[in-house]
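hey team, just a heads up i'm posting the complex here instead of the shared drive bc the drive is being weird again. everything in one block, sequence lines first with there labels, then the predicted structure for the whole assembly after. its two chains so it's a bit long, scroll down
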Amino acid sequence: MSFSGFRSLQLRLAVRLAILYVAAAAIAVGILVYQAYETAGSLNDRELDLRAEDLAHAMVAASAGQPRLDLPSKLAAAYAAAPEDDLFAIRDANGRVIAASPAEFGERVAKWPPAKSEPSYFRLSGVGPEEVGENYYGLNVALQTSAGPMWISVARTEGSDALVKSLLREFVFDTMWVIPLLMLATLGIGVVVIRNGLKPVREISQKAASIGPDATSVRLPEQSLPTEILPLVVSINRALDRLAKGFAVQREFTANAAHELRTPLAIVTSALETMDGDGELENLRTDVARMNRLVEQLLRVARLDAIALEFDTVDLNKVASSVVATMAPWAIAQHRTIAFVGSEQPVKVNANAHALEDALRNLVENAVLHTPCGTEVTVTVDCAGRIEVSDHGSGVPRKDRENIFKRFWRGPGERTEGAGLGLAIVSETMRAHRGGVSIADNADGGATFTLSFPSFPAGEAKASEAFAGGRA
Amino acid sequence: MRLLVVEDEPRISELIKAALERAEFIVDTVRVRADAREALANTPYDAAILDLGLPDGDGLDLLAELRPAGNHIPILILTARDAVEQRVLGLDAGADDYLVKPFAMSELIARTKALLRRPGAALGTTLRAGNIVFDTIGRDVSVAGVPLQLPRREGAILEHLLRRQGRVVPKSVLEEKLYGIDTELESNAVPVHVHHLRRKLQEARASAEIHTVRGIGYLLVETEA
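-- predicted structure starts here --
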């Protein structure tokens, strides 16, 4: 039988157990019934044997050498009382009927082959006109009597053992209803035991659900586990160890590769700067600038992956104004402006200032690149612990909002500059702060990116907010 | 003007030297801290450019030796972005400015010049941006060679913007500068002065202009040719 349809181990065990119980109960009942009927049958046979022996004892040799049946009065009365129920016929070794009750049975028996010393049983029907339909069960046996060997046939109506059988039937069926009940009870206990037994497995699965690329250090608990499951869990933990190592190696590689690329890139950058040339040189400079940016971002991403950020109390006003001041010359060179709108009171959050500056820098960069020439990008800090960056660009299409924070994602038709890492850095930084980043539409069609922090319960959620902070 | 460059990566050191020499500085380069210590002890440099990661130790330790010993040579620190904490450490230890790698050579030269222009430093007299020339001693301003008359407060603002050319000067800093001149300062004094100054520079066809960074301050940027 295939259990592939049942995904639950508990269900599988319960079903198997149930099938086993049903089969066992059926076999037990079958054996019981069979045994009961067997007992009834053998009781019947024994009764017939006794009768045949009684008849044999009653045989006497008459004076003329003629054998004769001399039934004790009690037996004779018994046979006479129910001649249709209890039959007998005695033949001598020549097959001549010596005695029979009723005579009709004797006539029948006269035609039968000789009896053997081994008893043979037979069934018989329709002896006498009144008894048509009456069935008999009987015995043929050759016995030694004081009048020489005799062939004795005895029979009784099948109904005559009904009492025995009904007694047995009553016993069997009175007892049998207990068996399914017992089975049900056992099954119930079994299911409870299975449930309890599988509890550690459920707990492990909950623990396992929390394992991800950001939480590679989580291991499944190995204490108080059933020995059947322990090897599996130990193996899984070992596999997790190897995976975590692989992750670490990969992160380290990214960080190292990016780090090692910096110096040669810096050399190329400086060398290109000192060269005089035409437009082609300008293109080269742009290319190298892009490579520099990519390498810096790769480093940042690798660091966010690898290092647990150290947190401190940080004033969002300070972070935001510092980023705006740093980015302003660049924005002005792009013919855009940046403005900072701070809150009156310091807004203190628990954060890593450098990581936060990096994240905000990426958001501002993104906004400046998307806002039209001559317009302003506004960085706003509000007292609810949020930093908003709004631009006057074309906004972010709703369908892209989930993807925009993924690494290396770029919108269709987007300019090729940038690696698509900036917003991933923003999202991952905010996740490390247990905060989030959301996107909303501005009244004029531009986009507003909002960084929010958990120490401030989120204010009124805007209708079009799409939180990305919890996303992997 | 003689500069010391302490940088262990030979190619970068070479490129920095070349760039600074094009800006008409005399440049010595050393690769390790021990050589830097010796060079600084024997030669009166006007400024030093110091990379923090050196083969024989941290550049910060060198700073920590110099300042207590009374050596106030202007020092510009070169640091990688991932060593951001070091920037703070560097400034605490007595560095005058820092530059995050990778940097543009033009930025390095601008910052070096800014260091040398600081009060008491070598380039004390003339500040330039585009065709604007500001003589800090005579307090004379000229645009494209034509003298420009500026009230004292506007002159103070321009001087400070010139000193921090290309970088945002917070409004609060400008307010402090004005406070020294005028003890009764109205809340919108800085925006008003900047407004006048901007108009005068435009009228004089200056090739640098003052941008407002709303909520932060102002910056002076050379206009593109």
